[in-house]
Amino acid sequence: MKERKSLVEVPWTTLSTRAIYRNKWLSLREDQVALPDGGTSIYGVVTCGDCVGVLPFIDSKTVLLIKQYRYVAKRVTWEMPTGGVHPGESIEAAAQRELGEETGHRAGRLTWLSTYHTSKSVMDETAHLFLGDDLMKLELHPDETEFIEVRQFSFEQALEMVLTNEILDSMTVIAVLQAARRKGL
Question: What is d(CA 42, CA 33) in angstroms, rounded to the nearest whole number?
């Protein structure tokens, strides 16, 4: 006798898709979907694609963080270098590009930390996080929409900033906690 799948495991079916908005960073669409129980619903999806983040270590105990004003959060934040992956660009190349644009460094070694979905419900975005070691100084070529201050922090201080909610950026929080786990902290 064949076991019947639970409705939890039945994929939803896209009946139609309508583009709502698009710019160079994201797109918004509205899908008409068939639900596992036979019903239908409208589902909004924001697509950003892949993004990367690098937690750059100057030495084994010191990291670089960047300070910038974040428009959506309406506040100044401390975070690690992050950004989107360009079409045709590998995630490692994107990580190095973002590190260079935001800190003026290149990592001699990138170590993968984590890959995760930044939102499981309405956002189609996958984050790829790295540790950056053996940093080499480059000429700084910032993105024209970024106004950034770069500062060194002890890793212990960065971890404390995460634990006290001074750092709220999910990519930075996950990278710092993963790095702390690797260091046995």
Answer: 6
Q: 25 vs 32, 84, 106, 149, CA distance in Å?
A: 24, 8, 24, 23
Q: Point out the catalytic residue in the list 3, 144, 149, 160.
A: 144
pLDDT one-digit tens code per residue, 137-152: 987 776 777 789 999 9
What's the gap between Cα 98 and its chain centre? Answer: 12
Report yes or no on whether pTM surpasses 0.85.
Answer: yes
Q: Label residue 1 exposed, middle or buried (CB < 10 Å: 0-12, 13-18, 19+).
A: exposed
Active site residue 144: yes
8 Å CB contact between 95 and 89? no
